[in-house]
Amino acid sequence: MMSVHGARKPGNGKRDAAPVPRLPSPVLLLSLALACAAPAPTGEPVRVTIPPGASFRVVTDSLAAHGLVGSRFWFRTLARIRGVDRRVQAGVYDIPAGASASQVLSLLEEGRIATTRFTAPEGLTLLELGDLVEARLGIPADSFARAAGDAERLRALEVPAPTLEGYLLPETYTLPLPVTAAGLVDAMVAEFSRRWQPGWDARLDSLGLTRHQLLALAAIVEGEARHDEERATIAGVYSNRLRIGMPLQADPTVQYAIQLATGARKPRLLYKDLEIASPYNTYRVRGLPPGPVNSPGVKSIEAALYPADVPWLYFVAIGDGYHRFSRTLVEHNRAIREVRRAQSGR
């Protein structure tokens, strides 16, 4: 009889193998190693620029120089396993200090580029907007002007003018860094196109205006109105003047003519300024000016599209941004005298 100790299992004729312990995956081991090697958090994000075409070794060296990578070898190895080393997107990144290697790689792979905010107020001309862009974003004003006068952009938007004056929508923009003149102009044009409603084109047909003419009217409203509740009324006044062939006599157009000639607006218009020779001087030239004289906001565009049905032909500022409206020149002159007496009394 065969001893029990020497018995074999039937079927395969082999002894039982000792169980083999299951080892962690290589990715897990690398993640643990990198986590141990990660630098300590300092609280403030670290700004890193990844230039276009940079090799992943250069990217790793830059991150290490900023204290964001503990081990170049493990970082590159993990990136290679995940395939991130071939998918890094160029740009400016704000990387949290002390982020894990996996978090850093995710930022680079997903292109979560750092951003900045820029607000373009209503009513600025291109020249004024260029100065603001230079002051706030560090983009040279002349670079912004060139981008706003680029022929290809003008053709794409079907702008019958030498610049995008009036087509750069006033808004607060969140822009990826680094911001360029072309990138900013494209963002503003895209926002203008996005906010332009399809129904407005049909409205233009009923008004007998082109989009360019409508924006010229909206810019005048923007230059005159200080309160939203008066925008449609002011648009109604100018629409009435257009309908009867009366000169628009709009001060914002004179200011624009002066700025084109001298590079700056005047703090206050004088009677002699109303004689400036310019197609934008609506005291001398009837009808709408050749184009917008500033950047009108959506509310002024809507007011020009849907002007109030009012009998007024004249208005005068009475203080606090409000106006007094009149039907006739006699009423208007009386209103001016009354406003001046009230102001001198105050």
Beginning-to-end CA distance, first to last residue: 128 Å
Q: Strand content of the residues, in percent?
A: 5-15%
Q: Into which percent range does the helicity of residues fall?
A: 40-55%
Overall tally of structural domains: 3
Low-pLDDT runs: 1-15
- With strands numbered from the N-terminus, the spatial order across the biggest sheet is 1-2
Q: Tell me the radius of gyration.
A: 33 Å
Q: Number of DSSP helices?
A: 14
Biggest sheet, in brief? 2 strands, antiparallel
Secondary-structure element pattern, one letter each: HEHHEHEHHHEHHHHHHEEH
Mean pLDDT score, rounded? 89
Counting DSSP E segments of at least 2 residues, the number of strands comes to 6
Shape, principal axes of CA atoms:
elongated
Structural class: mainly alpha
